[in-house]
Design a protein that fits this description.
single chain, alpha+beta, ten-stranded mixed beta sheet, 10 strands
Length: 245
């Protein structure tokens, strides 16, 4: 048996997220079915993060073990030949047997994209959050500074999970404006709570719209309740960019 690390890119528009679910189309299920076809054996896949329905990935990481006599190059060719067109393998490598896509990770980078213009987008309608008005980016940047560091992020946890540790170290929360009407928000942390990035983005947007004071985020953090923060941004603007080990 050998252990392999796979880096994936996918468009999550037509999937119910990463994790296998009964009678629903998921990224994990598609990958496991394709691996089983190639290896002629059942193969279980572990993902670095459980992206929600509609969320995309540029660098999702998965690991699996197989007894098939195949090289990383063989896996790369076979998987890209058989996977659905909206899922692509960027790389495959053999790794140590103690590698675990989720528990071996030390950091993750997410990106959220917001389109701020009056007219809708035909090409990016499933890839950005479209807002019909401009946002005060300076106010959003001011608000974001309060979140950088090690904090209890309970106020930004989308729903209850089995995870009993609400503390994360958010190392970077940066906002960029591109092409006048596109805003990119990058968030890098050692770990993320469920829907944490989307909750942060939704609250920042309220600041950008003038509905929330830029200096209010310390109070939001201290409240440790989801009701203190803003709305959850829609999933289709979110991308898992990179997982570090």
């Amino acid at each position: 048996m050998s252990t392999f690390k796979v880096i994936l890119e996918y468009d999550g528009t037509h999937y119910a997220g990463w994790q296998c679910q009964p009678d629903r189309r998921t990224i994990q299920a598609a990958l496991e079915e394709t691996l089983a076809t190639v290896a002629q054996e059942r193969v279980s896949v572990i993902g670095a993060g459980r992206t929600d329905a509609g969320v995309h990935a540029l660098g999702q990481v998965a690991s699996f073990r197989s007894g098939a006599i195949l090289t990383p190059a063989d896996w790369f060719r076979a998987l890209n030949g058989l996977l659905p067109k909206d899922i692509a393998v960027r790389s495959v490598q053999r790794v140590a047997d103690d590698f675990h896509a989720r528990y071996s990770a030390i950091g993750k980078l997410y990106e959220y994209r917001i389109l701020t213009r009056r007219g809708r987008s035909a090409l990016d309608r499933h890839r950005v959050w479209h807002l019909h008005k401009s946002l005060d980016l300076d106010a959003m940047r001011t608000a974001a500074t309060a979140l950088v560091g090690r904090h209890d992020f309970s106020s930004f946890e989308g729903s209850s999970t089995e995870d009993t540790n609400p503390t994360c170290r958010l190392e970077r929360l940066a906002l960029y404006r591109e092409d006048d009407d596109l805003i990119r928000i990058e968030a890098y942390a050692d770990r993320f709570l469920r829907q944490m990035v989307r909750a942060i983005v939704g609250t920042l947007v309220e600041v950008g719209m003038g509905k929330r004071a830029p200096g209010s985020f310390n109070t939001v953090l201290a409240a440790r309740t989801r009701a203190a923060a803003g709305k959850t941004a829609p999933p289709h603007g979110l991308y898992l960019v990179r997982v570090d080990y």
